[in-house]
Amino acid sequence: MKKHIQAFILLFFATTLFAAAQSDNISPQRKQAIDSLALEKVKDLSKYISIIGSKETQFSEANRVMDRAEELFAPGAEMGVSSINSQEVAYYPVRRYFERLMALNYDRVNISWYDIHYISDLERQPDGRYVGVVTIYQRFEGTSAETGLNYKDTTKKDITIYVEKKQTQVAGRTIEFWDVMLGDIRVTETSA
Predict the structure, then answer these.
(1) Where is the signal peptide (predicted)?
(2) What 8-state DSSP symbol labels residue 175?
């Protein structure tokens, strides 16, 4: 009888430890929801960049949209900028990237993203976060009526996605949830 109790206690603790270790794992259904949220945030960023870059957007509206766009990113994230006229890629903090985009010396700017999809599955990191990569293609067109300057390029970019468990208080109760943040946006290829 004593051996049965010891075996039961051992099994109970093993099950509890296994359940605790698994509690931070993401179920297939939850992963699908997280993937959808990540892609939605990437699409939101695409819309925000289009608004910020448009010369028709009022300064106050562009600043409001920059604030919203910044909320999508993890602290310290950087965005890459490239050109078909140079081999170099420059990286800027997110806010600085938006300010430079707004100040481009074109009369008309059109930026669109397409072919947005995951290129790497979410992988658990030692710190408990999950990391994945979404790839996008960005079409940039800038036109200046005064100089007749017309610039176009297509850039392939990889966006790091961070997924981590967070907590919030709702009606005095602590609620845990998975949140998605965008990380660095790396330029992988630029073409005309």
Answers:
(1) 1-19
(2) E
- The domain that contains 92 carries what CATH number? 3.10.450.50
Q: pTM of the prediction?
A: 0.82
Distance CA 47, CA 117 (A): 16
Torsion 97-102-107-110 (CA) sign: positive
Spatial contact of 81 and 100, defined as CB atoms under 8 Å apart: yes
Q: Is 84 part of a structural domain of the chain?
A: yes
Concatenated DSSP letters of 81-132: EEETTEEEEEEEEHHHHHHHHHT-S-SEEEEEEEEEEEEEEEEE-TTS-EEE
pLDDT tens per residue, range 130-181: 999 999 999 999 998 887 779 999 999 999 999 999 999 999 999 998 899 9
Q: Which domain holds residue 110?
A: 25-191
128 with 121: CB under 8 angstroms? no
Q: Per residue in 32-64, pLDDT tens? A: 888 889 999 999 999 999 999 999 999 999 999
